[in-house]
Protein backbone atom coordinates (compact mmCIF):
# COMPACT_ATOMS: atom_id res chain seq x y z
CA UNK A 1 0.00 0.00 0.00
CA UNK A 2 1.42 3.34 -0.96
CA UNK A 3 0.31 6.10 1.39
CA UNK A 4 0.46 9.76 0.44
CA UNK A 5 -0.25 12.27 3.21
CA UNK A 6 -1.21 15.75 2.06
CA UNK A 7 -1.73 18.90 4.07
CA UNK A 8 -5.37 19.44 3.18
CA UNK A 9 -8.28 18.39 1.00
CA UNK A 10 -7.18 20.55 -1.91
CA UNK A 11 -3.75 18.89 -2.03
CA UNK A 12 -5.37 15.48 -1.59
CA UNK A 13 -7.57 16.09 -4.62
CA UNK A 14 -4.58 17.25 -6.69
CA UNK A 15 -2.58 14.13 -5.79
CA UNK A 16 -5.55 11.90 -6.54
CA UNK A 17 -6.00 13.56 -9.92
CA UNK A 18 -2.32 12.96 -10.81
CA UNK A 19 -2.80 9.23 -10.22
CA UNK A 20 -5.98 9.10 -12.28
CA UNK A 21 -4.52 11.21 -15.08
CA UNK A 22 -1.60 8.80 -15.46
CA UNK A 23 -4.09 5.99 -16.05
CA UNK A 24 -6.01 8.06 -18.62
CA UNK A 25 -2.83 9.14 -20.40
CA UNK A 26 -1.69 5.54 -20.72
CA UNK A 27 -5.08 4.32 -21.85
CA UNK A 28 -7.75 6.64 -23.30
CA UNK A 29 -10.13 3.65 -23.20
CA UNK A 30 -9.63 3.14 -19.49
CA UNK A 31 -12.34 1.60 -17.35
CA UNK A 32 -12.82 3.75 -14.25
CA UNK A 33 -14.49 2.58 -11.05
CA UNK A 34 -16.07 5.60 -9.37
CA UNK A 35 -17.39 6.44 -5.91
CA UNK A 36 -19.83 9.00 -4.60
CA UNK A 37 -19.60 10.84 -1.28
CA UNK A 38 -17.61 13.88 -0.30
CA UNK A 39 -14.12 12.38 -0.61
CA UNK A 40 -13.84 12.28 -4.45
CA UNK A 41 -15.61 15.59 -5.18
CA UNK A 42 -12.31 17.52 -5.43
CA UNK A 43 -10.92 14.85 -7.73
CA UNK A 44 -13.98 15.15 -9.98
CA UNK A 45 -13.57 18.95 -10.02
CA UNK A 46 -9.93 18.49 -11.08
CA UNK A 47 -11.07 16.15 -13.88
CA UNK A 48 -13.59 18.74 -15.08
CA UNK A 49 -11.00 21.57 -14.97
CA UNK A 50 -8.50 19.44 -16.85
CA UNK A 51 -11.09 18.48 -19.45
CA UNK A 52 -11.91 22.17 -19.96
CA UNK A 53 -8.35 23.41 -20.01
CA UNK A 54 -6.44 20.53 -21.60
CA UNK A 55 -9.20 18.77 -23.55
CA UNK A 56 -8.53 15.39 -21.93
CA UNK A 57 -11.15 13.23 -23.59
CA UNK A 58 -13.53 10.75 -21.95
CA UNK A 59 -15.11 9.71 -25.28
CA UNK A 60 -13.77 6.19 -24.96
CA UNK A 61 -13.74 5.90 -21.20
CA UNK A 62 -16.14 3.50 -19.49
CA UNK A 63 -17.22 3.98 -15.87
CA UNK A 64 -18.68 1.72 -13.22
CA UNK A 65 -20.03 3.20 -10.00
CA UNK A 66 -19.72 1.31 -6.77
CA UNK A 67 -23.22 1.60 -5.47
CA UNK A 68 -26.67 3.16 -5.41
CA UNK A 69 -29.43 3.56 -2.83
CA UNK A 70 -32.42 1.25 -3.05
CA UNK A 71 -35.91 2.71 -2.98
CA UNK A 72 -35.30 6.15 -4.44
CA UNK A 73 -35.65 6.93 -8.13
CA UNK A 74 -32.73 7.71 -10.44
CA UNK A 75 -33.75 11.35 -10.60
CA UNK A 76 -34.11 11.79 -6.82
CA UNK A 77 -31.85 14.65 -5.69
CA UNK A 78 -29.84 12.30 -3.46
CA UNK A 79 -29.53 9.33 -5.82
CA UNK A 80 -25.97 8.44 -6.76
CA UNK A 81 -27.06 8.69 -10.41
CA UNK A 82 -27.90 12.38 -9.79
CA UNK A 83 -24.72 12.91 -7.75
CA UNK A 84 -22.46 11.56 -10.50
CA UNK A 85 -24.13 13.65 -13.19
CA UNK A 86 -24.04 16.82 -11.10
CA UNK A 87 -20.48 16.35 -9.91
CA UNK A 88 -18.85 14.93 -13.03
CA UNK A 89 -20.65 13.41 -15.99
CA UNK A 90 -22.52 16.56 -17.08
CA UNK A 91 -19.21 18.37 -17.50
CA UNK A 92 -17.07 15.89 -19.43
CA UNK A 93 -17.54 14.27 -22.82
CA UNK A 94 -18.34 10.76 -21.59
CA UNK A 95 -20.91 8.83 -23.65
CA UNK A 96 -24.08 8.11 -21.64
CA UNK A 97 -23.97 4.49 -22.81
CA UNK A 98 -20.51 4.10 -21.24
CA UNK A 99 -21.78 5.04 -17.77
CA UNK A 100 -22.70 2.14 -15.52
CA UNK A 101 -24.44 2.68 -12.17
CA UNK A 102 -26.23 -0.18 -10.42
CA UNK A 103 -29.99 0.20 -10.40
CA UNK A 104 -31.67 0.48 -7.02
CA UNK A 105 -35.01 1.58 -8.38
CA UNK A 106 -36.15 -1.67 -9.92
CA UNK A 107 -38.65 -4.21 -8.60
CA UNK A 108 -36.36 -7.15 -9.24
CA UNK A 109 -33.33 -6.26 -7.16
CA UNK A 110 -31.82 -9.73 -7.41
CA UNK A 111 -31.86 -9.44 -11.20
CA UNK A 112 -30.26 -5.98 -10.93
CA UNK A 113 -27.41 -7.56 -8.93
CA UNK A 114 -26.99 -10.36 -11.47
CA UNK A 115 -26.97 -7.87 -14.37
CA UNK A 116 -24.41 -5.55 -12.78
CA UNK A 117 -22.21 -8.42 -11.76
CA UNK A 118 -22.34 -9.82 -15.27
CA UNK A 119 -21.16 -6.48 -16.69
CA UNK A 120 -18.36 -6.35 -14.13
CA UNK A 121 -17.21 -9.85 -14.88
CA UNK A 122 -16.91 -9.02 -18.57
CA UNK A 123 -14.39 -6.26 -17.92
CA UNK A 124 -11.58 -5.27 -15.60
CA UNK A 125 -11.59 -1.89 -13.91
CA UNK A 126 -8.26 -0.12 -14.50
CA UNK A 127 -8.54 2.11 -11.46
CA UNK A 128 -11.16 1.98 -8.73
CA UNK A 129 -11.70 5.18 -6.74
CA UNK A 130 -12.83 4.50 -3.17
CA UNK A 131 -13.81 6.50 -0.13
CA UNK A 132 -14.00 4.79 3.25
CA UNK A 133 -16.74 4.83 5.86
CA UNK A 134 -15.95 5.75 9.45
CA UNK A 135 -16.63 2.06 10.16
CA UNK A 136 -14.17 1.11 7.38
CA UNK A 137 -16.84 0.16 4.84
CA UNK A 138 -15.88 0.31 1.17
CA UNK A 139 -18.65 0.68 -1.35
CA UNK A 140 -21.58 -0.19 0.88
CA UNK A 141 -19.84 -3.30 2.14
CA UNK A 142 -20.45 -2.92 5.84
CA UNK A 143 -18.49 -4.68 8.61
CA UNK A 144 -19.19 -8.41 8.48
CA UNK A 145 -19.53 -8.58 4.68
CA UNK A 146 -17.82 -11.59 3.15
CA UNK A 147 -14.57 -10.86 1.32
CA UNK A 148 -15.97 -13.17 -1.37
CA UNK A 149 -19.05 -11.00 -1.94
CA UNK A 150 -20.07 -9.83 -5.39
CA UNK A 151 -22.79 -7.29 -6.28
CA UNK A 152 -25.49 -7.56 -3.63
CA UNK A 153 -28.20 -5.77 -1.68
CA UNK A 154 -27.22 -4.49 1.75
CA UNK A 155 -29.05 -3.30 4.80
CA UNK A 156 -27.29 -0.05 5.78
CA UNK A 157 -25.92 0.14 9.30
CA UNK A 158 -27.26 2.82 11.62
CA UNK A 159 -23.84 4.52 11.66
CA UNK A 160 -23.76 4.79 7.88
CA UNK A 161 -27.32 6.17 7.80
CA UNK A 162 -26.40 8.72 10.47
CA UNK A 163 -23.25 9.71 8.53
CA UNK A 164 -25.39 10.25 5.41
CA UNK A 165 -28.28 11.97 7.18
CA UNK A 166 -26.72 15.36 6.39
CA UNK A 167 -27.83 14.96 2.76
CA UNK A 168 -31.48 14.25 3.61
CA UNK A 169 -34.22 16.16 5.46
CA UNK A 170 -34.31 13.63 8.29
CA UNK A 171 -32.95 10.22 9.30
CA UNK A 172 -36.26 8.65 8.24
CA UNK A 173 -35.63 9.83 4.69
CA UNK A 174 -32.24 8.08 4.46
CA UNK A 175 -32.76 4.82 2.56
CA UNK A 176 -32.19 1.69 4.61
CA UNK A 177 -30.89 -0.43 1.74
CA UNK A 178 -28.40 -0.11 -1.10
CA UNK A 179 -27.08 -2.13 -4.02
CA UNK A 180 -23.30 -2.35 -4.03
CA UNK A 181 -20.40 -3.98 -5.79
CA UNK A 182 -19.02 -6.68 -3.52
CA UNK A 183 -15.56 -6.80 -2.05
CA UNK A 184 -14.48 -9.42 -4.57
CA UNK A 185 -15.51 -7.08 -7.42
CA UNK A 186 -13.51 -4.23 -5.86
CA UNK A 187 -10.44 -6.42 -5.37
CA UNK A 188 -10.57 -7.42 -9.06
CA UNK A 189 -9.61 -3.86 -10.12
CA UNK A 190 -6.06 -3.44 -11.45
CA UNK A 191 -5.43 -0.45 -9.22
CA UNK A 192 -7.20 1.10 -6.24
CA UNK A 193 -7.15 4.76 -5.28
CA UNK A 194 -8.60 5.33 -1.80
CA UNK A 195 -9.22 8.86 -0.56
CA UNK A 196 -9.98 9.98 2.99
CA UNK A 197 -9.90 13.25 4.86
CA UNK A 198 -10.84 14.47 8.33
CA UNK A 199 -10.52 13.17 11.91
CA UNK A 200 -13.68 11.12 11.53
CA UNK A 201 -11.75 8.73 9.24
CA UNK A 202 -8.53 8.44 11.28
CA UNK A 203 -9.45 5.24 13.15
CA UNK A 204 -10.79 3.53 10.03
CA UNK A 205 -7.56 4.39 8.19
CA UNK A 206 -5.43 3.05 11.03
CA UNK A 207 -7.46 -0.18 11.12
CA UNK A 208 -7.24 -0.53 7.34
CA UNK A 209 -3.48 0.02 7.14
CA UNK A 210 -2.15 -1.38 10.42
CA UNK A 211 -4.88 -3.64 11.76
CA UNK A 212 -5.57 -7.33 11.23
CA UNK A 213 -7.23 -8.35 7.98
CA UNK A 214 -10.76 -9.10 9.07
CA UNK A 215 -14.27 -9.03 7.64
CA UNK A 216 -15.13 -6.77 10.60
CA UNK A 217 -12.94 -4.13 8.91
CA UNK A 218 -13.92 -4.37 5.22
CA UNK A 219 -11.16 -2.03 3.97
CA UNK A 220 -8.47 -4.17 5.64
CA UNK A 221 -8.68 -6.58 2.66
CA UNK A 222 -6.90 -3.89 0.62
CA UNK A 223 -3.68 -4.94 2.37
CA UNK A 224 -3.84 -7.98 0.06
CA UNK A 225 -4.16 -5.96 -3.17
CA UNK A 226 -0.80 -5.28 -4.78
CA UNK A 227 -1.57 -1.88 -6.29
CA UNK A 228 -3.26 0.43 -3.80
CA UNK A 229 -2.62 4.15 -3.41
CA UNK A 230 -4.14 5.81 -0.36
CA UNK A 231 -4.28 9.61 -0.38
CA UNK A 232 -5.02 11.22 2.99
CA UNK A 233 -5.03 14.60 4.63
CA UNK A 234 -3.09 15.03 7.87
CA UNK A 235 -6.14 14.46 10.05
CA UNK A 236 -7.12 11.19 8.42
CA UNK A 237 -3.48 10.07 8.73
CA UNK A 238 -3.13 11.25 12.33
CA UNK A 239 -3.40 7.83 14.00
CA UNK A 240 -0.95 6.09 11.67
CA UNK A 241 2.29 5.06 13.37
CA UNK A 242 4.61 6.78 10.92
CA UNK A 243 2.73 10.05 11.42
CA UNK A 244 3.45 10.23 15.15
C1 LIG B 1 -19.82 5.89 -2.02
C2 LIG B 1 -19.35 4.78 -1.21
C3 LIG B 1 -19.02 4.93 0.23
C4 LIG B 1 -18.26 6.21 0.54
C5 LIG B 1 -17.96 6.31 2.02
C6 LIG B 1 -17.25 7.60 2.37
O1 LIG B 1 -20.06 5.48 -3.36
O2 LIG B 1 -19.26 3.72 -1.73
O3 LIG B 1 -18.25 3.82 0.63
O4 LIG B 1 -17.08 6.23 -0.19
O5 LIG B 1 -19.15 6.23 2.75
O6 LIG B 1 -18.10 8.68 2.12
P1 LIG B 1 -17.57 10.18 2.22
O7 LIG B 1 -16.56 10.35 1.14
O8 LIG B 1 -18.79 11.03 2.00
O9 LIG B 1 -16.99 10.33 3.58
What's the short version?
With 244 residues, the chain is an alpha/beta fold.
Descriptive account of the structure:
The chain is of the alpha/beta class. The chain is built from seven helices and ten strands. It has helices at 9-26, 41-54, 80-87, 109-121, 158-164, 183-187, 202-210, and strands spanning 2-6, 31-34, 62-65, 67-69, 99-100, 127-130, 152-155, 177-180, 191-196, 228-233. The strands form two sheets. A seven-stranded parallel β-sheet has the order 1-10-9-6-2-3-5, covered by helices on one side. The protein has a three-stranded antiparallel β-sheet with strand order 4-8-7, covered by helices on one side. Strand 9 (191-196), helix 7 (202-210) and strand 10 (228-233) form a beta-alpha-beta unit. Helix 1 (9-26) crosses helix 2 (41-54). The chain is globular, with a radius of gyration of 17 Å. 42% of the residues are buried. The model has no long low-confidence stretch (mean pLDDT 96). Bound molecules: fructose -6-phosphate (F6R). Fructose -6-phosphate binds at residues 35-39, 66-67, 131-133, 137-140.
Amino acid sequence: MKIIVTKDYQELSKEAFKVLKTVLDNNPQAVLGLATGSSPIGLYQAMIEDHKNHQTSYQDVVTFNLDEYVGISKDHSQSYYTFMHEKLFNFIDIKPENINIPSGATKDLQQACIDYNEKLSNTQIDIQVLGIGSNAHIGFNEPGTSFESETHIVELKEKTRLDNQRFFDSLDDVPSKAITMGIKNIMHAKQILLLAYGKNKAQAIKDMVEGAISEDVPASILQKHDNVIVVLDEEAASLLKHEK
